[in-house]
């Protein structure tokens, strides 16, 4: 018991050291701005992939239009900072919350279907969002918006990423998460256990939308310009690749998948056009050798939150739960 | 007033009349059997009663309230639970979590409590774990709470499914062929178990079962379906000697 | 009126191309339950095969078409062998992501080896214009519509009447029948990928002739559209692909005619969503029954 506690403590110390260390390296320009931006991109991708995991991994649905939510967050927050001069925090939160609202509304019709049809519908909404943004002059149409304040920095991304992961983890290992996983495992049985399946799905969708919105807001205020063409299905596809690379139903897998794929694309930058050949090849090799992704649905023990007291006696001396 | 009242219920699937003019009254505390040859429509009756299908015709009342068109989750929250002919556990979840899912709609904490793991969360989860473990103990599944449900042996999966149904605290329990795939000794034990849970949980039970000794041994009343029609109804003794039943069902089953 | 006929022809042309590609999606889906995301890129590869055959071997239309169909079929079968078959028992999602990987690989490999620029497709047909009820029709348009229709009828015949077609249907409906027929699943899958890819190559060449440029990324948007067409009609159904393709073609052309063209994609998707909400398994699809 004390061993697992010290492991947990160690884990958090490493996280803290990572954050402070990186920030310091950035401040003293030991890591240059370009690398720092890549690191920020990794954080943003982690948020996107982990939130998509909620739908595709834990809830077991197949949504492939996550970039649409990212776009909404980016645009709404950009309107906040550029047009209404809101403080960044406020714009960020408004972006996330409104995106969650839209996700909820989209979910109402979308969850009337499931499986591949749900995939098509989510993709459809992704396309429609991009199409609308292209046609709204207020947000610059196809040219998009420029002159976003450079509000996103390493600390913002780092804090949001960690917070996102902790929140998602705590939800997944609570009654909410159990309900989602039960729906994935057997929807008819779940419904027969008194679970309002539709409402549970909508909740998950709204939460995923919220975090995708946050990620979009961070992204926009990192690059300082946004346009609709950054949020097409190609972006959604990137997220899917990272998600499945890491493993469905594992938040650690999402972190791994997003980090590896984003990192890989940067490392391969010197290879020019071959970069985009090598990275899918690597994906293929991994899928063929590990069809469930790198981690499958496993989660290392020290990131799984502890059960309340009563469970301690229950859980001692038992084989691994997952 | 009877606990469950179904009147003139029919279920048609594009021309196939799976169940026709089915009427049933269950009094509180009864243990009633529903039998019939393969494809007779027994599972379809369960599906109508539990909101999986909305009957093509007829009405269903539970404790005086109409539930004909209610959703499965509403019906379950209202007090009807069931097991499935082909086991439907949450395979990739632990035994404990299978039970906890069944308790979920009674859990009183909000999303914020879950995220922050506040005392309300701790309190509720503690209560839920204790309740679940209690139930697992009754079904001799304690000690296996951290196994994945899919890794349990068949008999224990059946038991877990019943335990999970009971966790929703039903008044009426529908069991769809709980002894399927069990040998004589196991189904004898199951029979004891069913008798016992009826007493212990104060339940009314409707039981589908092919295993005749089980049905005849524990049911007070039996309804027989054949090709969707109710062909007989009565005590086990009456059913055993009913000519139509023997023709339709017992004949083929008993001989082999 | 003449404007209307003009648009009608454009819609037919676009729709039959979507339908040709949608057929490949739908056939693979029917047999393996896989959304073959690489199918759009086989369409692209088919266009490039046609391009090089016509430019380097200087063949005329029909031989170019046949040779490109053959090469695309080989490509499709090879992809199945290398990337999909090892995963046949893996979860469906893994297979779909693998298909995404194959798709990215094909696009970017083509781009890396042949360059990303647009190439103008060689003239395989002397384009002539005809007047039809005030509208102008080209022989190319007629060719596209006729070739698509003939191939679709042919496919329908194959699926309904031949041994291999019956086996394909058996795979999706009733696996036991397949065993009785003495045809292995591998053979059926091979035939499915071969035929689907050949049809996609035809579409690639027709698009190349009509627009008349090709590039390594031409398969992405068209591929998605064709996939949507397949879903719209009811994925897994041959006739569904035809219906879905034509409807999508009509919607896109007429939406573009009535609204600013920038709304075209949005409208197409909006219609798709509405159809799926009203009829969740596509226009021709039968409702899924919950079996408990
Ligand atoms: N969703 C459905 N769609 C079409 N037909 C169905 C559906 N559900 C059941 N049926 C048909 O209704 C009839 C009755 O089926 P049911 O499952 O109720 O029989 P059963 O009495 O439970 O049989 P068994 O003893 O084999 O479990 C069967 O012919 C079955 O094929
Ligand atoms: Mg049955």
Description:
The complex is a heterotrimer of chains A (322), B (256) and C (292). Chain A is an all-alpha fold and 322 residues long. Chain A has 13 helices and 2 strands, in the order αααααβααααβαααα. Chain A has helices at residues 2-27, 33-58, 66-83, 88-110, 115-135, 154-172, 175-185, 187-192, 197-223, 233-246, 251-267, 275-289, 309-315, and strands spanning 145-146, 225-226. Chain A has a two-stranded antiparallel sheet with strand order 1-2. Residues 316-322 of chain A have low confidence and may be disordered. With 256 residues, chain B is of the alpha/beta class. Chain B has 2 domains: 4-79 and 170-255, P-loop containing nucleotide triphosphate hydrolases (Rossmann fold, 3-Layer(aba) Sandwich), CATH 3.40.50.300; 92-161, no CATH class. Chain B has 10 helices and 10 strands. In chain B, the strands form 2 sheets. A 6-stranded mixed β-sheet of chain B has the order 6-7-8-3-9-10, with helices on both faces. A 4-stranded antiparallel β-sheet of chain B has the order 2-1-4-5, with helices on one face. The longest helix of chain B is centred in the middle third of the chain and has 20 residues, at 119-138. The radius of gyration of chain B is 19 Å and the shape is globular. With 292 residues, chain C is mostly helical. Chain C has one domain (2-217). Chain C has 11 helices and 4 strands, in the order ααααβββααααβααα. Chain C has helices spanning 2-32, 39-57, 61-84, 92-114, 139-161, 163-173, 175-181, 185-210, 218-233, 238-258, 264-278, and strands at 119-120, 129-132, 135-138, 213-214. In chain C, helix 6 (163-173) runs antiparallel to helix 7 (175-181), helix 6 crosses helix 8 and helix 9 (218-233) crosses helix 10. Classes of the chains: A mainly alpha (322), B alpha/beta (256), C mainly alpha (292). Chains A and C meet through helix 5, helix 10 and helix 12 of A and helix 4, helix 9 and helix 11 of C. The structure holds adenosine-5'-triphosphate (ATP) and magnesium ion. Adenosine-5'-triphosphate binds at residues 13, 16, 18, 36, 38-44, 85 of chain B.
